[in-house]
Amino acid sequence: MKTVKIVMLMILLVVAGCSSGSDDTGPQVGGPSDDIDPGGSDDDNPDNDDDDVPVVGPFVYDATEDLKNVASFPIGNIVSASKLASTSTANTTFKQILNTEYNSITAENDMKMANMFTGPDTYDFSDGDAIVAYAKENGHRVHGHALIWHQSIPNWLNNFTGTDEEFEAQVEGYVKATVAHFAEAEDDDGNPIVASWDVVNEYFDGSSVRSSLFTQRIGNDFHEKAFQWAREADPDVKLFYNDYNIAGQVDKRNAIISMVNNFITNSIPIDGIGMQMHLNHDWPSSDLPLSIQAISDTGLLVHISELDVKVNYGDDITELTEERAAAQEFQYQRAGYYYTSIVPLAQQFGLTLWGFRDQDSWLYDGGSDWPLLYDNDFNTKISHRGLVAGLNEENPE
Ligand code: XIL
């Protein structure tokens, strides 16, 4: 993990030497673009970790501190049942890092509706069960993601020909059965392994309610019903609302905060807010701490639930440059620092990264972005150093 081939190093140095250092990025709107095909790769490429050359390149560094040991809250990353089951060289390295640096896991896709809700009143929990079993064996918490999301609907439900009442009964049955099923898993001390669920993901589109199959078939209050169904199925599991651009889009954030306040006024159960945090190297700027403060002020738990930092949002570079790598390090430090220093300890649910190697990222886009903490050989990038510094409460600005 801390070594790299000489050839690789030379390439990196040459590339760094050639980088233009341009900062002509212009104003940017952040967040995931709808036309990205995220495609969650599950590849088993062997890594190249076969010599002992110290890492001195501009993009990677020799890490001495593990993320979970510097944080005052759980540090998470994403998994799939297939990667956890794999014994390839790359996936063995992945699991070593997972167990060393992290103590919380989220299923990247396996615990979404499209994977588990296989037919009317029919569920397949096998992938989630494998993830829970791995968590139990290796001391991880599991964050359930996500019960209702407009982008993860099984085909049969999309094409459901029953009445709206029958549609709602199917969704209600799914939410209750899923939450009840995963509530059964306990560690050796009798504590639940699945601590929490993202009950509704991305209800808002900007500051408006997103039109989806669920608003059309159930109504704009489907989200309130979903939280109530989840609570009925498990009185203890933490229930989260999760969304992107909560940092960076003030109107959207305000709409979410109003929703949460309405929930609280009307006794609709909710325990926390997941800020996805798909950031760019230069976005958001001042709104990052402001957003964390505003979400924290709701008094609910705060989860940074899907952290990654794009460095090529404008598609203006063809290789990672030193300037962008440094900007990314800074942005990761800001995320870690503001979360740690702003959110009161009792509300710190945790910080979850959305992937390991750059090539594993849903934003890799065929090799044209480098959003994560490890390069394609699992070396720790300087972005990792930034996050460690932030978690250590070193103020980056
Ligand atoms: C993404 C996964 O990373 C991809 O593999 C999949 O193809 C699509 O979903 N917001 C979310 C996550 O809440 O579930 C998404 O994960 C990324 C955006």
Give an overview in words:
With 397 residues, the chain is an alpha/beta fold. 38% of the residues lie in helices and 15% in strands. Helix 8 packs parallel to helix 10, helix 12 (287-296) runs parallel beside helix 13 (322-342) and helix 13 (322-342) runs parallel beside helix 14 (382-391). The chain is globular. Mean pLDDT is 89; it is low at 1-56. Bound molecules: (3S,4R)-3-hydroxy-2-oxopiperidin-4-yl beta-D-xylopyranoside (XIL). Residues 32, 38-40, 108-109, 146, 201, 276, 306, 362 line the site of (3S,4R)-3-hydroxy-2-oxopiperidin-4-yl beta-D-xylopyranoside (XIL).
What kind of oligomer do you see? Answer: single chain
Structural class: alpha/beta
The DSSP helix count reads 14
Uncertain stretches: 1-56
Q: Distance between the terminal alpha carbons, to the nearest Å? A: 30 Å
- For the biggest β-sheet, the strand order reads 1-2-5-7-10-11-13-14
Question: What share of residues is helical?
Answer: 25-40%
Instruction: Tell me the β content.
Output: 15-25%
Task: Compute the number of strand runs.
Answer: 14
Order of helices and strands: HHEHHEHEEHEEHHEEEHHEHEEHEHEH
Q: Which distinct ligands sit in these coordinates? A: (3S,4R)-3-hydroxy-2-oxopiperidin-4-yl beta-D-xylopyranoside
Name the shape in a single word.
globular
